[in-house]
Amino acid sequence: MNGCAACQKCRCIRTSSAFISPRLFHRIEILPPGAHCRQTEIIVTKKDKATVCVTPDARWINKVIVKPSLSTVPTRRREVHNFPISTTIE
User: Fold this and answer.
1) Total-model pTM
2) Is residue 36 situated within a structural domain?
3) Measured between alpha carbons, how far is 38 from 53 in angstroms, rounded to an integer?
4) Domain that holds residue 62
5) What φ, ψ does residue 31 adopt, rounded to 5°?
6) Residue range 11-32: mean pLDDT, rounded
7) pLDDT score of 1 more than 50
């Protein structure tokens, strides 16, 4: 138990539900609940290298994140985002 207690905390102390334009996104991290934190954490890194923790219940973030089940549904016009989405499972 050598100083790893800090490794077991949530990364998001405060969250925001304010809209952030996907054009400003550089990266999205989705951290599911686990031993490190009881809540799902969504961390957006913007192109200016600022990081923002987004409330998972925010309606707009759910529209930005493409769910795997919806990716197979054909659509006439699909908007493609060029930012990476990473999920981490411990």
Assistant:
1) 0.66
2) yes
3) 15
4) 10-67+81-87
5) -105, 110
6) 93
7) no
